[in-house]
């Protein structure tokens, strides 16, 4: 059972999300929050597996709330769900729209596991919640790539051989590159002729070496460091 906290300041949107999730099998809505500060308190109290987070809210926004939720969860002792195979930290799935590129980028940097557009269909929403709960992949990778590229195109250039990636093995860099290009673990495994479990191992080691908390942050680092550049070229 995936425990979900729904955060949105718009009553109709929040109520619709809650109704959808409560009707779905394998999902339990453990709380609702109308703003960022409320979300932080509710997350600490309910220890959800996934937080469905709006970005633009009055007071504490979704980006700040994401940072605080993950920081407090990291500092807290393991909850009862840890022994049941649940993630040590909640996975934050951000809700956004196409015209909020910088907000999405900031959310990923804050530690969000991915994001959805608010016009996402019910089936895709449920698939995304399941995916981030497993820690498996960043949902909607093609959209993620476009948004990150749009941001990077406005950013300062970075060195071609960043020191931050020197600790990675050749295979780890290869897996990181394919991840940033939007491939799922299954697709990476097929392309590199390795098992999906091996892909996950390489990603976990990469995130540990780079001190990252999520696959989403790994994608951002790949673009920031020039391993992948806008348009798909390899750095």
UniProtKB/TrEMBL annotation:
GO biological process per UniProt: phosphorelay signal transduction system; regulation of DNA-templated transcription
CDD domains: LuxR_C_like, REC_NarL-like
Residues where 4-aspartylphosphate is found: 54
Matches recorded under InterPro entries: CheY-like_superfamily, NreC/VraR/RcsB-like_REC, Sig_transdc_resp-reg_receiver, Tscrpt_reg_LuxR_C, WalR-like
Keyword vocabulary terms for this entry: DNA-binding, Phosphoprotein, Transcription, Transcription regulation
Keyword DNA-binding: yes
Residue stretches making up the Response regulatory domain: 3-133
Ranges for domain HTH luxR-type: 161-226
GO molecular function annotation: DNA binding
Pfam families in the record: GerE (PF00196), Response_reg (PF00072)
PANTHER family: TRANSCRIPTIONAL REGULATORY PROTEIN NARL-RELATED, TWO-COMPONENT RESPONSE REGULATOR
Name recorded for this polypeptide: LuxR family transcriptional regulator
Native species: Streptomyces toyocaensis
Organism lineage string: Bacteria, Bacillati, Actinomycetota, Actinomycetes, Kitasatosporales
């Amino acid at each position: 059972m995936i425990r979900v906290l729904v955060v949105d300041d718009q009553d109709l949107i929040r109520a619709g999300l809650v109704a959808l999730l409560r009707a779905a099998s394998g999902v339990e809505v453990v709380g609702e929050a109308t703003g960022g500060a409320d979300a932080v308190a509710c997350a600490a109290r309910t220890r959800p597996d996934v937080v469905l987070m709006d970005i633009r809210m009055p007071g504490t926004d979704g980006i700040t709330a994401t940072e605080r939720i993950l920081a407090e969860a990291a500092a807290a002792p393991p909850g009862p769900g840890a022994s049941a195979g649940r993630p040590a930290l909640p996975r934050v799935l951000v809700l956004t729209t196409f015209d909020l590129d910088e907000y999405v980028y900031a959310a990923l940097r804050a530690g969000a596991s991915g994001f959805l557009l608010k016009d996402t269909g019910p089936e895709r929403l449920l698939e995304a919640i399941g995916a981030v709960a497993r820690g498996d992949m960043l949902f909607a990778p093609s959209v993620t790539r476009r948004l990150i590229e749009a941001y990077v195109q406005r950013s300062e250039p970075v060195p071609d051989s960043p020191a931050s990636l020197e600790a990675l093995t050749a295979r780890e860099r290869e897996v990181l590159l394919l991840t940033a290009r939007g491939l799922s673990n299954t697709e990476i495994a097929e392309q590199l002729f390795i098992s999906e479990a091996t892909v996950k191992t390489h990603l976990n080691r990469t995130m540990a070496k780079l001190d990252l908390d999520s696959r989403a942050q790994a994608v951002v680092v790949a673009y920031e460091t020039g391993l992948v550049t806008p348009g798909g070229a390899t750095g």
